[in-house]
Every structure is written in structure tokens, then in C-alpha cells.
Amino acid sequence: MNIFEALRESHVIQRNLAERLLQTSGDTPERRELFERLKNELFAHAVAEDRYFYIPLMMTDSGLNITRHALAEHHKMDELLEQLTETEFSNPGWLAIAKKLSETVHHHLQEEEHGFFQQAGKILLDAQKTALAKQYQQEYKKYKKIEKDSLV
Predict the structure, then answer these.
(1) 115: Cβ–Cβ under 8 A, 6 or more apart, which residues?
(2) Element containing residue 7 per DSSP (H, E)
(3) Entry's InterPro entries (predicted)?
(4) Which of 47, 66, 119, 141 sees the fewest Cβ atoms within 10 Å?
């Protein structure tokens, strides 16, 4: 498995959880559970992806600009998750923020899979792609087990 395949596995989970979360309403156990799962998924993915995908790419001139953009999008997701965490589940504005988060997640994943991965594929050597996948997966699994209140 290479780094791109490893990242895509989490992308599938993120899309699914974000879409399911938007189907909820009010302060229900389902909304709370889906939000916690999405928050944990985004956290584990972002920590591992930053360390074992973006940082190695930032070390190259050609990877610097695209990496900055991706990290800025991670920061935007962090802020939206923090807003959701601080907003009552029953607040009518909660779903509007959740929609912004879902749109940001979908946009980010689309950009990664249909642009950034292709550029990164030209920068990283095949051996790096495989090694980074293993490191990413170990870090991702470690943080999937940790409950976090937010991505900050």
C-alpha cells in the first residue's frame, strides 16, 4: 500500500460520516455519536497526514505551496469543529455549521485526490510512498484510539 491508498481509506470514512451527520436533527444520541466519530476521524487523519505526508512534502520546493494550502484547509476544519463543539446540538445554527464543515471536508478531499496526490506522486519516490503509508497508518491508528474534544 502506498500513502495515497492509505489516505483514501480515511477519506471514504470522512465522507460517509459527514453525510450521515447532516441527516440528523436536534440533540439526539445519533447526532452526538456521529459527531464524535467524525471529530475523531478528522483528528486522527489530520495528525497522521500532517506528519507523514505534508511535512515530507514541505521539505521540497515543489511541494511547499500546495502543502501550505492543504494545511490552511485543515485549520479551517479545526475551527469549524471547535464551533460545533461549543454550540448546543439543539441549536438551529448547529446544522448550518455542520454543513459548512461537510462542504469543507468534501472540497479538501476532492482537491487532494484530484490534484494534490498527482503532484505529490511526482515528488515522492516509490520507496517513500510505501514507507510513509506505514508510518501514516501507525500514527492514524494510535490517534483513532484517543478521544479528543477538538482538533486544536
Answers:
(1) 66
(2) helix 3-21
(3) Hemerythrin-like
(4) 141
Give me the number of domains the chain comprises. 1
Is 67:57 a contact under the CB 8 Å cutoff?
A: yes
In a domain, residue 17? The reply is: yes
Helix (H, G, I), strand (E, B) or coil at 88: coil
> What is the C-alpha to C-alpha distance for residues 57 and 59, in angstroms, rounded to an integer?
5
Could you tell me how far CA 96 lies from the centroid of its own chain?
A: 19
Contact status, residue 145 vs residue 43, Cβ threshold 8 Å: no
Q: What is the mean pLDDT of the chain?
A: 93
- Domain assignment of residue 151, yes or no: no
Q: What would the grid cell of residue 27 be?
A: 440533540
pLDDT tens digits along 57-92? 999 998 988 899 999 999 999 999 999 999 999 999
Q: How far apart are CA 95 and CA 142, in angstroms?
A: 30
114 belongs to a structural domain? yes
Mean pLDDT of 121-138: 97
For residue 150, the 8-state DSSP code is -
For 69, phi then psi, to 5°, come to: -60, -45
Task: Report yes or no: 128 and 56 within 8 Å, Cβ to Cβ.
Answer: yes
